[in-house]
Protein: Site-2 protease family protein
Amino acid sequence: MANLLGVVLFALAILISVSLHEAGHMLTAKAFGMKVTRYFVGFGPTLWSFRRGETEYGVKGIPLGGFCKIVGMTPQDDDVDPADEPRAMWRYPVWKRTIVMSAGSITHFALALVALWVIAMSAGLPNPDFPSTEQEFRAQPAVVSLAPCVVVENANRACQAGDPVSPAAKAQLRDGDRITAVNGRPVSSWGDMLDVVRGTKPGTATVEYVRDGTPATATVDLASVQRPPLDDPKGATAAVSALGVALQPSTPARLTYGPVGAFGATADFTGTMAVETVHAMQRIPQKVPALWTAITGGERDVDTPISVVGASRLGGEAVENNAWLIFFMLFVSLNFFIGVFNLLPLLPLDGGHIAIAWFERARSWLFARLGRPDPGRVDYLKLMPITYAVILIGGVFTLLTITADVVNPITLFPR
Structure:
């Protein structure tokens, strides 16, 4: 039930985001005097609507987005009433049209920024000094956090009934103890400890550690577990020893801020997220084969793109496991991605309309300098083949991601 609630909540959050996206277009268009005739949440048959002024507002039967109708978005719109010609969108200065067309993405960015600002003050944002690579983790001091159990088989899962108790916990070690030696072999870092423990036979071992500045020794019964090589997580498993501890990094994973400090932290994190989003979009073509592999029975690559269906499923998992921070970070990431993606200079995306508007402006300026007549507006009808191609490619890609998210979804919490 909790999972279903999370799925519904996340899907609702996406629907609200998209509806606000269209509201951004509508409100800025109205502010500039453009005529907006319709604003609807959803598609398909109309369930309910009302008219206020010159605009009809309503809800349609298929809750997969929304739309607003601005009169004369292109010079080729053939449904513009002659009385509305002066208020047709294409007649307005390019800077006004740019604001209107980018307002949707700006709305997504605003939603993401507000959510991040609240997260920065409550749960905290990722600490930029926290180790992020395998090398950085291995270089950390061997300060341990006790695991509740030892998973014997090679499984990335939480503890279950019947799993052996952590050997370190049985030996009365505590969170924050720093391991200095195992069976007399010195340990100077977390990487050293992993190598030494795995190189020690299962069974009784002497562990030297420092607690609150005081050296001490414990006798530990090292567990025998199946694990792949440290340098090859997907390699063949073998029997090695385990102490039943995790790394306690020397820096916190997240930092919380006050209301003022949260602005700077949010800006810094947004810059990092922008770079990661661009890199993720560049990798999309490379991930298509991996999506097909996942659909046809192969292992699902966690780095493959997900659809709204997949994001909603992850939101459901987060709620089911009381991981609300993951839920809201998914919301932030999705809004930021949609905002960036929608600004790509391709029709029918908003970025395509913006690119054409500025192309027209630059071309008119150049022709004026050359003493030639203004070539006028771009003929959108001639661009329709490209538009259809973009829609077709986008549709196929969406179908691939949805199918993969249904038959072989990415999961956050191994079951």
Summary: Residues 396 and 402 are 10 Å apart (CA to CA). The mean pLDDT is 90. The two ends are 16 Å apart (CA to CA).
